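Annotators were shown the component list below and the corresponding predicted structure, then asked to write short factual statements about the assembly.
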Amino acid sequence: MSLLSTHGLCAHYGDFQALFGVDVYIERGETVAVIGANGAGKSTLLRAMIGLLPSAPAMVRLDGEPVGNLPAHDLVRRGVALVPEGRRLFRSLSVEENLRLGGDFLAPGAWTLPRVYELFPRLAERRDSPATLLSGGEQQMVAIGRALLSNPRVLLCDELSLGLAPIIVREIYARLATVAASGTTLVIVEQDISRALESADRFYCMQKGRVSLAGACGTVTVDRAALTQAYFGL
Amino acid sequence: MNVMTILIQGTLLGGLYALFAIGLSLTFGIMRVVNIAHGDLITLAAFAALVVTDTLAISPFVALGVVVPLFFALGYLLQRGLLNRTLGDSILPPLLVTFGLSVIIQNVLLEVFGANIRRLPVGNLETASLQLPAGIAIGVFPLIVFAAALICLGALQYLLYRTRLGRAFRATSDDPETAELMGIDNRHLYALAMGIALAFTALAGVLFAIRTTFDPASGPIRLIFAFEAVIIGGLGSLWGTLLGGVVLGIAQSIGAAISLEWQILAGHIAFMIILVLKPDGLFPRTQD
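Structure shown to annotators:
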């Protein structure tokens, strides 16, 4: 039984349908990349997985249980966390307050504030600074640390590299590898195909709200031509 | 009456207005709900205290021990059962629903208690005063009200900036959707916020009913005073609210010293002047 899976998942923003029968599964301990062009439905998939976008109960399953209709705060309690696109830090809270809030209302676990500071030492130096005064990369670290403090079993990461310098992106992905090594299951939404294929065990490519290609990353068998076709629909 | 006395009386009156304003400021700050029924809830608390003191034959101060928790529960249920359903992208639905609530509260109070003017008696304390040098007299009860306002604002400051719940309130005010990602159930959190707001409102209502007379139609003008204190101080600024209340109180005291019918008008004029000179209030919130 997969940790998290979707079954014919459809999602709508008002009258606009963003997902058309998406089937994906995430196994315990693996890192799965979701790639695709702008508007392919990657973020929508993550939002539906964590309950920010409601769906029919059986369309999303956690530990095999139907959870599609549960609100986000409930899914967070059950061990799903999201690093949202654009980071979405709380602007009236300091760095440390943002981090603390990640775990404030949830059961304690292996991830603690000192451990997050150990993972991102730069944040310890800026702990009392208002979160929005940090650089983009540091803000992304806060967003990841905040999600980790909820001690998730599966961490969903939406476009971590968006608007960040390549050197910072490399640093963040290196830290993420540490997180994955500690046993946390990762789902990474990414536009940078090489970055995604490098960091993940398996990938799903999305196009126009559907999964257009899926496969394993490590092998050389990722057919670039097929991927281009799946990505751009050319 | 000398100038010093007017200023002191005005300042102390400002404490009461700050107490009126706390609940209003809290609900707007966290939920973006402009509670039109706020003044009527103050009056409702006054009548609740009247019933409690009459039934149990206890002092209004002791009655606070009943009325404040009762209003916390009322606030929680009101938000959970009614106002949460009005929240969305538009601020209009909660405005209309609380306006309806205002009309309902006024008419129910009129139906149950009649139009008579009431007051909560506290004996000698009503007239007790401290004599200071230079012929200045300070009423003991207004001083108690002012101290209560300071304590309430201090407590609220502690709650918002030093506790887990306060962090959650500020975060939800910033971004309710992301707050859900922290495992926070916004419906519950909003209900807690309204409960706390109404607990402060209950205290304000009881102290108001001891200080001056009230009747079922007392609400709307208290709502205006609370609004003016919040706006003068700067929306969302805690201590600004106290300053706003004090500015309003002093203006009213000066007005009353000129002529009694000038009391209320002078407060509104001060409000208008500040709105023209500093539309964001005296202490605009630097960080949202």
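Statements collected:
1. Chain A has a mean pLDDT of 94.
2. Strands of chain A lie at 4-13, 16-26, 31-36, 60-62, 65-66, 80-83, 154-158, 185-190, 202-207, 210-216.
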